[in-house]
Amino acid sequence: MKTIGFIGAGSMTEAFLAGMVNGGVYEPKHIYVTNKSNEERLNHIHQSYGVNITSNKQSLCKKTNVIILSVKPKGAEGVIRSIKPFITKDHLIISVMAGVSIEAIEEILGEVPIIRAMPNTSATIRLSATGLAKGTYTTNEQLQFAQMLFEAIGMVQIVEEPQLDAVTGLAGSGPAYIYYIVEALEKAAKEMGLDEETARNFIVQTLQGASEMLRQTTKEAAQLRQAVTSPGGTTEAGISVLESQNVQSAIVECVKTAEARSKQLKLAFFEQVRAHS
What we know:
- The protein is an alpha/beta fold.
- It folds into two domains: 4-160, NAD(P)-binding Rossmann-like Domain (Rossmann fold, 3-Layer(aba) Sandwich); 174-245, ProC C-terminal domain-like fold.
- The chain is 56% helix and 13% strand.
- The protein contains twelve helices and eight strands.
- It has helices at 11-22, 39-49, 57-63, 76-83, 102-109, 140-150, 164-172, 174-191, 196-216, 221-228, 234-244, 247-276, and strands at 4-7, 31-34, 52-53, 66-69, 92-95, 114-118, 128-134, 154-158.
- It has an eight-stranded mixed beta sheet, sandwiched between helices.
- Helix 8 (174-191) packs across helix 9 (196-216).
- It is elongated and about 70 Å long.
- The chain starts with a strand and ends with a helix.
């Protein structure tokens, strides 16, 4: 069995550990975790999941076959350069860092198998939607291994790396769009006199039901919407307001703008790496 090392012990790493360990996908003894300097956080991870912890990146790299880079993009270049002396072609590097391209990591580490992943925060409850893309030196077998790991925290779709910007705009940022809409529904419910708990129960169940309808039926979203929208009825009245405010166009632009920002961040990071090479 491959031994996995996490560099970074934040919320995404913990979501992974919850899915892998609690889900019986991986034994804790085969997992190592390190971070920059937060020993309290590492101790929490060890006590919660029984995995190995270390403050020594060199030791972690020597003991593991797979290294998952789970740090904030701001400090990514420093972290990648710090492990370069300990990385071999036998390692598999998996990055869950937004705005950091495979090309940029290859620029630092060289001819090493790399996989880039874009999960979302629903990984915490094992319902992430994750896009995976492989690098120049990555085999299909390694990609299948990564898919198995990410399926421990949700759904996985393999894409070409340029598509990960769209995945970021759609699914990576997607939960925030849904929460934004829920905020509006909660506000409307309050203004109509519903108490907070009652409103939340109705909203959550409505979202869950609509999600399951999309999952279980072959009908398009537009068909499902039309089935609810009776002529002259309440739904039609509500939808007419959304259309008059161009809400659908705003959502399309929202996702495209997030995608564009992902591309900007990726380019800026790559130029930064090139400048330091």
